[in-house]
Design goal:
Blueprint lengths: L1 H5 L4 H5 L1 H11 L8 H41 L9 H35 L1 H16 L9 H27 L7 H29 L4 H10 L3 H14 L4 H29 L2
Length: 275
C-alpha cells in the first residue's frame, strides 16, 4: 500500500516513461536511424511555428497593453490620490497576464508541433515503434488492411481527435467568464484534454497495429489511470518546452510503445495474441 501511495497509484511511474525512453536508445542503437528524418522535420516545423505564433502573440499582447493602458488612464484618473497605489497593482497584474499569455502560447505551440510532428513523421515513427515492439515482446503483431484503408483510418483518427478537442475544449473556454474558479476550471479541462490527446498520439502506433477503434483506445487510457494520466501529462510537458520538444516527440513515441508493452500488452492482448 505504501509503495502505491508513493507512486501516486501509478501516476509517477507513468510519468517516468518518456525519461526511460532515452535509455532504450543507449541499449538498442539500431533504433537511432529511424530518428534522423523526423528530427529534421521537427526542426524545420518548430522554427517556423514558434516564429509565427510568438510573433502573433507579441502583436496581440501589445494591442492588449495599449487598450488596457488607455482604460486605466481614463478610469484611474478619476480616483483620489490615496488610491495611487492601485497603479502599481494594475501594472503587476498586467505583467502577470502577459506572462501567462506567452506561457499559454508556448503550450499551444508545443501541442500543435506534437500533432503535426506526429503526422509528418508517421512513417518513420511507425517503423520505430515496430522495431521496439519486436525487441521488447519478441514478436510483432500487425494487421494489414491495404493502403486505402490505412489512409481512411488515419484521417478518421485525426478527425475524431479534432471533434474531441472542439466538443470539450471550446465550450470549456466559456468558463473563463467566471473569474477565479471559472478560469481555474477551464485551465484544468484544457490540460486534461490536451494530455489525453497526447496520450492517444503516443500510444497509437501499437494500438493501431491491432486496429482498435477510437473508443477502444480511449477506453484503454481510462482503464490504466492514473498511470496513463502521468504518461500523457509528462509527454505534454516535454513537447511544450521550446527547442527540447524537437527531440522529445520521437522519445515519447518510444515511451508509448514501452508503456504498451509493459502495461497494456500483458493484461489485454497477450493471451489472445499467443493463441
Amino acid at each position: 500500500m505504501t509503495q502505491h501511495l508513493l507512486s501516486g497509484f501509478g501516476f509517477w511511474s507513468g510519468a517516468g516513461y518518456p525519461f526511460r525512453a532515452g535509455g532504450l536508445l543507449r541499449r538498442y542503437p539500431s533504433l537511432a536511424p529511424y530518428l534522423v528524418i523526423p528530427l529534421l522535420l521537427n526542426l524545420a516545423l518548430g522554427i517556423w511555428l514558434y516564429w509565427q505564433l510568438l510573433q502573433w502573440g507579441e502583436n496581440s499582447a501589445e494591442i492588449g497593453r495599449i487598450y488596457f493602458g488607455a482604460w486605466w488612464r481614463e478610469w484611474g484618473g478619476q480616483l483620489p490620490d490615496s488610491f495611487g497605489f492601485l497603479g502599481g497593482i494594475i501594472t503587476l497584474i498586467s505583467w502577470l497576464l502577459d506572462l501567462l499569455f506567452k506561457f499559454f502560447l508556448l503550450i499551444i505551440a508545443g501541442f500543435i508541433l506534437s500533432q503535426l510532428g506526429v503526422i509528418l513523421g508517421a512513417p518513420w515513427y511507425e517503423k520505430l515503434s515496430e522495431k521496439l515492439e519486436k525487441i521488447l515482446l519478441g514478436r510483432l503483431f500487425l494487421q494489414n488492411l491495404g493502403f486505402g484503408a490505412e489512409i481512411r483510418r488515419s484521417i478518421a483518427f485525426e478527425a475524431k481527435k479534432l471533434v474531441l478537442l472542439l466538443g470539450i475544449g471550446v465550450p470549456s473556454l466559456f468558463l473563463n467568464v467566471f473569474p477565479g474558479l471559472g478560469s481555474l476550471a477551464a485551465t484544468a479541462v484544457g490540460v486534461t484534454l490536451t494530455a489525453t490527446l497526447a496520450c492517444l498520439d503516443f500510444l497509437n502506433p501499437p494500438l493501431e497495429r491491432r486496429r482498435l477503434s477510437f473508443r477502444a483506445k480511449l477506453g484503454l487510457i481510462v482503464k490504466t489511470l492514473p498511470a496513463s494520466a502521468g504518461f500523457g501529462l509528462s509527454c505534454l510537458i516535454l513537447v511544450s518546452i521550446p527547442v527540447v520538444n524537437l527531440a522529445t516527440i520521437p522519445l515519447c513515441i518510444l515511451a508509448g510503445t514501452l508503456f504498451f508493452s509493459e502495461r497494456l500488452y500483458p493484461r489485454y492482448f497477450a493471451q489472445q495474441e499467443e493463441i
